[in-house]
Design goal:
The complex is a heterodimer of chains A (about 300) and B (about 325). Chain A has eleven helices and no strands. Chain A is mainly α. Chain A has one domain: MetI-like (MetI-like fold), CATH 1.10.3720. In chain A, helix 6 crosses helix 7, helix 9 packs parallel to helix 10 and helix 10 runs antiparallel to helix 11. Chain B is mostly helical. Chain B is built from 15 helices and two strands. A two-stranded antiparallel ribbon of chain B has the order 1-2. The chains are: A mainly alpha (about 300), B mainly alpha (about 325). Chains A and B meet through helix 5, helix 6, helix 9, helix 10 and helix 11 of A and helix 1, helix 6, helix 7, helix 9 and helix 12 of B.
């Protein structure tokens, strides 16, 4: 986070360290936050490196070794098509991570900027667009995702845009609310009095001040996106088979859960550790920035 | 206050009309039309055309929207072309089943969340708080289908206490549904409890260090009197809105849980509707769920206004 010109309201005391260093110092004091960060990093490293070292071809079927229990050969056993569950579990988060990480950036950019602008202009257009935002938020999230993807298709870039759009809607509201705290502040009034252009006020005065809110909202959004993406995959609207994916693996292997529980546990453990990691990190990150995230809506 | 409530009511209506537009246009944009989906491979150009004519698929867009919206106001959600039945009839019992499930989960979950939240808030950073808070993060963050899968493995497959999936038809009496919904209720409760609990905990902590609670302590008011008479009512106020949001979420997100447990509810119907390109059905379910969401939020807003005098004079946001 970079602090803008005269944003004196929040940092009354003169800061010795940069805000970034200060946040990091706060974050390091939280064991839960560090655990979360470690889990996230492990998952990102696994996603990047797994194609180079997984022991088996994740797509190779072998009817001789169907639904085998975990062994030295197959650490997580095999599924009903004889595929190696360990290799598939290691690879199963690649699409999810790629889609959600890009979508997070998209949702920050459009949701954040639109929210700030609406908070600044605060007139008819604001009133009207907020009604549309409210309306979109009243449609059950799963239905909204399913509708857009049913209309637009399941290509990866479509899903990325869909998630970036859908999860940015709530961010519009968050960014707007955060902006409203600053539009009447002296430094914005001063900028207006100086005759600064609206664009300059948004980028130089408001954005740096609501950036922390946007980032915390983003880390929470990330876990909701993962939840959403995994749910879509689970229902068969996510990653296109045969590409291994956690949600879809859980859905398919669940069908004969009693016979081969290990084929479900692999992806369950991977998906759960990532989501829990993100949430532990989000909590600590919000606290490190002095924000409270318990108000978040269960979207 | 009446004026404020009136304003809220009008806003809710505008939102509902906007949603109907979004839903209508969104569903219209689904690729392929129902006539083709319905007749499948046997379709000839003539039979497709006559089917489209019969169901008014050839009318201009705005006319179809007005017809549809007029129908909603009269309680008619149109005709499902895939199932050849009125949508209202298709939804009927399934809606009841979802409400039974959601109500049961709410009845278990909300009191549990409040009790646990108060305990965690009062014992901040001691082991009960750490335990409850950590468990709630896990419960809140795991996708419903993961929690459900783990529960099914433990309680249905290993211990054989409950059925793994529901095998009764959608129109059985409520009493016959009950044994089937134990695991779905536990799943929903785990997710729901966490959100409410965290808010109650935060509020409780804030209230317990507030000036008036300090004052009461100094005056020598017994501890539990402070908790129940002073702290709890104030900690509960902001919770109303979250409870409403959680309930609304419950109705929307319940689709996956219903699918996992094969429970004959509205959410499972909605997913089937999208797969079958059943326009009328998806539109109908979407508008019902959105209306419930809006209604719950409205009730929560009005309730908070009645309970909190400060909000009565404040302008709505």
């Amino acid at each position: 986070m970079t602090v803008a010109s005269p944003s004196a309201e929040r940092s009354v005391a003169v800061r010795r360290r940069s805000p970034l260093a200060e946040t990091w110092a706060n974050l390091r004091r939280s064991w839960a936050g560090m655990l979360g960060l470690a889990l996230i990093l492990i998952h990102i490293i696994l996603a990047l490196s797994s194609p180079y070292w997984v022991p088996r071809d994740p797509l190779e079927m072998n009817s001789v070794i169907r639904s085998q229990a975990p062994s030295g050969e197959h650490f997580f056993g095999t599924d009903k098509l004889g595929r190696d569950v360990f290799s598939r579990s290691m690879l199963g988060g690649r699409v999810t991570l790629l889609v959600t990480l890009i979508a997070i950036v998209i949702s920050r950019v459009w949701g954040g900027l639109l929210g700030i602008v609406l908070g600044l202009v605060n007139g008819r257009a604001d009133e009207l667009l907020m009604r549309v935002v409210d309306a979109l938020l009243s449609i059950p999230w799963l239905l909204l995702l399913l509708l857009i993807i049913a209309v637009m298709g399941t290509e990866m870039w479509v899903q990325t845009l869909t998630f970036g759009f859908t999860y940015g809607i709530l961010t519009v509201r968050v960014a707007r609310a955060a902006t409203l705290d600053f539009v009447t502040s002296e430094f914005v009034l001063a900028a207006r009095a100086r005759g600064e252009r609206r664009r300059t006020i948004v980028m130089k005065e408001l954005l740096p001040n609501v950036l922390d809110v946007l980032l915390v909202d983003g880390s929470m959004n990330w876990s909701w996106m993962l939840l959403g993406f995994a749910s879509l995959s689970f229902l068969g609207f996510g990653v296109v088979p045969p590409t291994p994916d956690w949600g879809f693996m859980i859905a398919k292997n669940r069908e004969i859960l009693a016979v081969q529980p290990w084929a479900v546990f692999g992806p369950v453990i991977m998906l759960s550790t990532l989501i829990i990691g993100i949430n532990l990190f989000s909590d600590a990150f919000a606290k490190a920035l002095g924000l409270d995230r318990s108000q978040g809506a269960p979207v | 206050m009446v004026a404020l409530i009136g304003r809220r009511l009008i806003l809710a209506l505008i939102t509902l009309i906007l949603i109907s537009l979004i839903v209508f246009l969104g569903v219209e944009a689904l690729p392929g039309d129902t006539a083709t989906a319905y007749l499948g491979q046997m379709a000839t150009d003539e039979s497709l055309e006559s089917l489209r004519e019969e169901f008014g698929l050839n009318d201009p867009l705005h006319e179809r929207y007005l017809n549809w919206f007029g129908g909603i106001l009269r309680g008619d959600l149109g005709e499902s072309m895939v199932k050849r039945k009125p949508v209202v009839e298709l939804i009927g019992n399934r809606f009841r089943n979802t409400v039974v499930l959601a109500t049961a989960a709410a009845l278990v979950g909300i009191p549990l969340a409040i009790v646990l939240g108060v305990i965690a808030g009062l014992m901040r950073d001691k082991w009960p708080d750490v335990f409850v808070s950590t468990t709630s993060i896990v419960g809140m963050t795991l996708p419903g289908f993961v929690t459900a899968t783990i529960l099914i493995y433990v309680f249905a497959i290993r211990l054989e206490w409950f059925p793994a999936i529901t095998l009764v038809p959608s129109d059985v009496p409520v009493i016959e549904l009950l044994p089937n919904i134990v695991l779905p209720i536990i799943t929903l409760t785990l997710i729901m409890v966490a959100h409410i609990l965290r808010l109650v905990r935060t509020n409780m902590i804030d209230v317990m260090v507030s000036d008036y609670v300090q004052m009461a302590r100094l005056k020598g008011v017994p501890y539990w009197d402070i908790v129940f008479k002073h702290a709890l009512p104030n900690a509960m106020l902001p919770t109303i809105n979250v409870v409403a949001l959680t309930l609304a979420w419950l109705l929307g997100g319940v689709a996956i849980i219903e699918t996992v447990f094969n429970y004959p509810g509205i959410g499972k119907l909605m997913i089937a509707g999208i797969t079958d390109r059943d326009f009328a059905l998806v539109q109908g379910i979407a508008i019902i769920l959105a209306a419930i969401y809006i209604a719950l939020n409205l009730v929560a807003d009005v309730l908070s206004m009645i309970l909190n005098p400060k909000l009565r004079t404040a302008r709505g946001h």
